[in-house]
Amino acid sequence: MGVQLPTAFVKRMEQLLGDEFEAFMTAYDHTPHAGIRVNTLKIPMEDFKERSPFELRPIPWCATGFYIPHGTKPGLHPYYHAGLYYVQEPSAMSPVELLNVAQDEAVLDLCAAPGGKSTQIAAKLQGSGVLVTNDISTDRTKALAKNVELYGVRNAVVLNESPDRIAAAFPHFFDKILIDAPCSGEGMFRKDEDMAKQWETHSVDKCVVMQRDIMRVAASMLSAGGRIVYSTCTFAPEENEGMIAEFLEAHPDFDVVPVPSEAGFAPGCPEWMSEEVAAAHPELRGTARLWPHLVEGEGHFIAVLQHQGGRVTGTEDHTESEDLNPFEDKNNRVLNIDAAYPRKKQFLSVKEALTPSGQGRHATDEPKRSGKGMDGKSGKGKSARGLGGNKSRSGKDNVKSAARSPQDVLESYHQFVKEQMEMSSTGYTVVYGDRIYQSPLASHRLDGLKVVRPGWFMGTDKNGRFVPSHPLAVALRPSEAVRSINLSSSDAEAIRYLKGETLSIPVERMTLRNEVQPKGYTLVCIDGYSAGWGKWQDGMLKNEYPTGWRWTSV
Questions:
Q1: pLDDT tens for the 554 residues of the chain, in order
Q2: Can you tell me whether residue 228 is helix, strand or coil?
Q3: How many CB atoms lie within 10 A of CB 356?
Q4: Spatial contact of 58 and 262, defined as CB atoms under 8 Å apart
Q5: Where are the alpha helices (DSSP H) in 310-458?
Q6: Which of 168, 235, 284, 423 could form a disulfide with 480 if both were Cys (CB 3.0 to 4.6 A apart)?
């Protein structure tokens, strides 16, 4: 056996699995399965299958997921840097598929880092609705934000908060909630031997405490008739069936939606908790277990919890006192994020700036949303003006930067969009210092929260000149930029660009729109899919690919 398993773990699994134990243990002699999931935000499925550089074999439970041969290195291809696919363990693709996300919905990924499931949700939303993606770990939100940006997500807000604080800010708000809970990681022992080594210190008991805290507030964030998918990558029944049994006891207005078994998913085992639990909650057999000896993937547990409609029980009702429409800003405002935190910090403190009347040039269309009492109105926001200091979460006065005002920053941004882009932005324009974002949420939703990204990062104002961001570039279609250049993935030129090198590009290779001059910011594409910016002048393409994103392999 290649993996050294904890003795106590082996003894427990032998007791639980009985006749299946031998087959279970044999699975640890096999190589873990590798997979990729196509990012349909950037490329249609059929197009990817036609141009895939890898041999593909469909993953039964994910229409956009594929097994790739062992030894394949999908991270070492230009398509990875263009965000055309996400490298993901096959079993990990299943929870989002069962979340049943529909366009225009509000979705929360509560324990999201490093972000694979968030990008999967975003692909299902297709730029509509809103995705709030969160992780309580400050370090892990760095990878989360980068993945959201790399895969061209335009409608996501990235938070670094506790479930309690999110619940206070978003009562009965989300149509769908994914809880990929922190767990003891037993299902990943074959794939990650370090998790097996840490199992005794990162114990089941410790994880149960964390999971219980999360599930305690989960229902309070869900709208009537919404759905929660709870998942772990562990086999421990205390973290799985036991946790769902506790939730159902506290929330009788939820049903367990049975998970289909066609893909080889095994039913839940409530009797592993106790005969009493099995008798009280036979519906727990409708949860699913993914076993490495039964499916081509690692170990997972999934429970689909559907609210029956009406008021969610066991939670405080905020609906009479608060406006729960995320897309309606009554005073027709543009957001201004107060520069309370030093620029080196990644948290943003959100504050709105009232829109001066009579300045209609900086309008942004508000997103539309159907159902759940949303009226789907489209509103107009205008330019922002600076405010004085405001109170931070600690109650201390914040001092705003004496640099350019939000009004001036917006001027440079809108001038760039007018001259350099062929796109219409939706949502709210957010100014944080010299940085500009497009947010899918109205201001009061983020007030007081630790915000890593309030929306799609558009760029930075530098002394009156707008500098477009890399996340803006990778989310664009070639038709949305007035200048673009296409590189071939089969040519070394594409890798040279991804390494940060300057390229010699004759003007004849450029695609120019609206009779624009060739000099200036140019969207660089690989086989027709955006990868980053360059600045073209006199036959040379100055590389604008950010250092921290560059191709580093030989």
A1: 568 899 999 999 999 999 999 999 999 999 999 999 999 999 999 999 999 999 999 999 999 999 999 999 999 999 999 999 999 999 999 999 999 999 999 999 999 999 999 999 999 999 999 999 999 999 999 999 999 999 999 999 999 999 999 999 999 999 999 999 999 999 999 998 888 888 888 789 999 999 999 999 999 999 999 999 999 999 999 999 999 999 999 999 999 999 998 889 999 999 999 999 999 999 999 999 999 999 999 999 999 999 998 766 655 443 333 333 333 333 333 443 332 222 233 333 333 332 222 222 233 333 333 333 323 333 333 322 222 233 333 334 343 444 688 888 999 999 999 999 998 878 899 898 899 999 999 877 899 999 999 999 999 999 889 999 999 999 999 999 999 999 999 999 999 999 999 999 999 999 999 999 999 999 999 999 999 999 999 999 999 999 999 998 75
A2: strand
A3: 12
A4: no
A5: 406-420
A6: 423
CB–CB of 254/247 below 8 Å? yes
Alpha carbons 45 and 43: distance in angstroms, whole number: 6
Is the CA virtual torsion 149, 150, 153, 156 positive or negative?
negative
Sign, CA torsion 97/98/100/106: negative
Cα distance between residue 54 and residue 66, in whole Å: 10
Beta-carbon contacts of residue 159 (< 8 Å; ≥ 6 apart): 132, 133, 134, 135, 141, 166, 449, 450, 451, 452
